């Protein structure tokens, strides 16, 4: 019973903290530091996701040291599972997380969180296509419910003053593809249980950080802005946001271990509701009944699929 309560609490906390991470990210992208010049505006999403994953990797490394898993992470990188996680990290970090942050920039935290919450259902679909895992009728119905809710959000946008809405909507869908493929590749690679979930997270954040730091940031000319961000006050907020996101991941994996992936996923994807609540409380953003209802149906549909 204690383990179950721990799992339920961890699942709820994982969703709440990721919702908070989403809103804080929106604040970072809208800060004066990133909207001061045209160049800063263009580079903001790249630099933000690079620093977010860098800080998250450092927080995870500290966690690895405290839990005495640092040596196991090095060994895990040499395994078959570790190599698959490195591949999955490219879909989850540079592709998925970047698209997520850019979508927040264009359509706000509430809409981005709601649309991206379809990723568990999309992951089940990719498993059906690539891993030949069977989906029940209930799972197909859940997939239809989730996709239909997302289409309603995108095709019938509310009367809100948001520029580039379709671009933001498309980027949120790119995030869904990135995160869902990441989960499928990780699941395939971790069948042999060579890597623990927290070790996998450390590898994921480290690979994403290196990929951005060595390839993306230098190519786009973002080294200067990244250096300025690290030495400015905005780095404190980015570091705190990364800590919130990292804590969300750890709570999520704790929930998976305690109550299983189905219930853990069902509680975690409530982050879209939490994002709407935090967005309203912190930023005083307007929310609509349609956004709330579509978010609820997205969660219901994703749970129906993941229960398969």
Automatic annotation (TrEMBL):
Going by the UniProt record, its keywords in alphabetical order are: Membrane, Transmembrane, Transmembrane helix
Q: Where is the EamA domain?
A: 23-153, 167-306
TM ranges are: 12-35, 41-63, 84-103, 109-131, 138-156, 162-185, 206-226, 232-252, 264-283, 289-306
Which InterPro entries does this entry report, sorted A to Z? EamA_dom, EmrE-like
PANTHER family, A to Z: ACYL-MALONYL CONDENSING ENZYME-RELATED (PTHR22911), SOLUTE CARRIER FAMILY 35 MEMBER G2-RELATED (PTHR22911:SF137)
Family designation: Belongs to the EamA transporter family.
Q: What is this protein called?
A: DMT family transporter
**Can you name the source organism?**
Paraclostridium tenue
């Amino acid at each position: 019973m204690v383990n179950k309560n721990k799992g339920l609490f961890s699942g709820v906390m994982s969703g709440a903290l990721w919702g908070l991470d989403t809103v804080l990210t929106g604040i970072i992208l809208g800060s004066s530091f990133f909207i001061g010049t045209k160049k800063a505006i263009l580079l903001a999403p790249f630099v933000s996701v690079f620093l977010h994953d860098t800080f998250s990797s450092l927080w995870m490394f500290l966690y690895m040291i405290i839990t005495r898993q640092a040596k196991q992470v090095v060994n895990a990188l040499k395994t078959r599972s570790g190599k698959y996680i490195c591949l999955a990290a490219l879909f989850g970090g540079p592709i998925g997380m970047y698209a997520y942050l850019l979508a927040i920039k264009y359509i706000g935290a509430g809409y981005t969180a709601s649309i991206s919450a379809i990723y568990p259902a999309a992951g089940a679909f990719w498993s059906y296509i690539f891993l030949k895992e069977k989906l029940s009728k209930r799972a197909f119905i859940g997939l239809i419910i989730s996709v239909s809710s997302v289409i309603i959000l995108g095709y019938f946008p509310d009367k809100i003053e948001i520029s580039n809405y379709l671009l933001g909507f498309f980027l949120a869908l790119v995030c869904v593809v990135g995160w869902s493929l990441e989960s499928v590749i990780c699941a395939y690679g971790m069948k042999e249980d060579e890597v623990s979930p927290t070790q996998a997270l450390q590898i994921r954040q480290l690979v994403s950080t290196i990929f951005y730091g060595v390839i993306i940031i230098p190519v786009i000319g973002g080294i200067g802005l990244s250096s300025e961000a690290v030495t400015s006050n905005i780095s404190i907020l980015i570091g705190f946001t990364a800590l919130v996101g990292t804590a969300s991941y750890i709570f999520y994996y704790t929930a998976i271990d305690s109550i299983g992936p189905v219930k853990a996923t069902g509680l975690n994807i409530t982050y879209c509701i939490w994002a709407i609540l935090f967005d309203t409380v912190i930023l005083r953003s307007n929310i609509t009944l349609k956004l709330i209802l579509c978010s609820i149906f997205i969660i219901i549909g994703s749970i129906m699929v993941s229960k398969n």
